[in-house]
Structure formats: C-alpha cells, structure tokens
Amino acid sequence: CAHPGLRIHEYLYFQVLSPGDIRYIFTATPAKDFGGVFNTRYDQIHLVPADPPEACGELNNGVFIQDQIALVERGGCSFLSKTRIIQEHGGRAVIIADNAYDNDSFYIEMIQDSTRRTADIPALFLLGRDGYMIRRSLEQHGLPWAVISIPVNVTSIPTYEMMQPPWTFW
Questions:
Q1: Is the pLDDT score of 2 beyond 80?
Q2: What pLDDT is stored for residue 113 in this prediction?
Q3: Which tens digit of pLDDT belongs to each residue from 84-110?
Q4: For 135, phi and psi rounded to 5 degrees?
Q5: Which of 82, 77, 103 is nearest to 93 (CA)?
C-alpha cells in the first residue's frame, strides 16, 4: 500500500519508560517509501537491541524481538533488508539508529533499495547519539531491552522540551 505524499520531515516520537536514566522522549523519522505506519499506540512495549546490532542476517536474540520493537544499527545492508529481517522475526516495528554515534542532528532519509521487495512493519530512523545512549544505558544496567511507549503525542505534553534528552539541540 503506497502512502500518499512525501513523508520527509515528519517526526514520530517515543518515550523510554525504563531504564530511568534515559527516561526521555526521542524523535525519529519514518522511512520515506517503504514500511507500514503505526495503527496502534503501544503504552509499554520492549525496545530490543538486535544481536548482532546491524541485523543483516541471523539474529542471536530473534526470539526476544517477536511482538516487540527492534533497535538496530545502520550499516552492513540496506534499511529495507534490516526491516524485513525484523519483520521475519515477528517484530512490530524497527528503529534504525545511525552508526555515527556523534550524529545528534542529521536525519537520514531512509529509502527503498533496488530489489523491489517490500516491508509491512514501520521503520524509523533514529539519531546515532540517541541510539548509542539507549544501548549504553542498557549495557550499564545489564538489561536486554528498554520499555518504551510509541508513538507519543507530544502536543499533549506541556513539558515536552523538559523531557527531551539533554544532549539534543532544540
């Protein structure tokens, strides 16, 4: 199903509920010409970092991605390939973080590859700094996943700017 119009500069927000040290609202951008849209709001769903992080082949923790959302890293294969691998593991959506860990402001437009394949689950792009901070927090706490709410309607949150990560420019 094609989505009418260009979706560039559209943002989608999610909030990390735990671990508490990264309990912020994060900004992501939907893939431009592939993937589904969020028809459901998930109040509490696991954000599971893929192992290996680039998710270009077999996943060691694929069982934990079933019915949850995967956090993967850019690189190694196309955005679409990553999305399809997560979809095949039963993931509800994929969040692809830039592999430039110092990227705190530049959103990349995720477009289809040349294979004419499709993906049905939503695919979102996340800044490298945000992805890195989420993964680092999970490693520090020895946790296999974060708990998030997605999507979050920021217009209903008066203190939205207070809830953004302190390393974000706005």
A1: no
A2: 84
A3: 999 999 999 999 999 988 877 788 888
A4: -65, -40
A5: 82
Q: Which domain holds residue 54?
A: 29-153
Q: Which residues contact 59 (CB under 8 A, 6 or more apart)?
A: 50, 51, 52, 65, 85, 89
Enter the tokens of residue 41: 């709001």
* C-alpha span between 126 and 96 (Å, rounded): 6
If one counts the domains in the chain, the total is 1
Terminal Cα-to-Cα distance of the chain (whole angstroms) = 34
For residue 137, being part of any structural domain is answered with yes
pLDDT digits (tens, 9 = 90+) for 31-87: 988 999 988 999 999 999 999 999 999 999 999 999 999 999 999 999 999 999 999
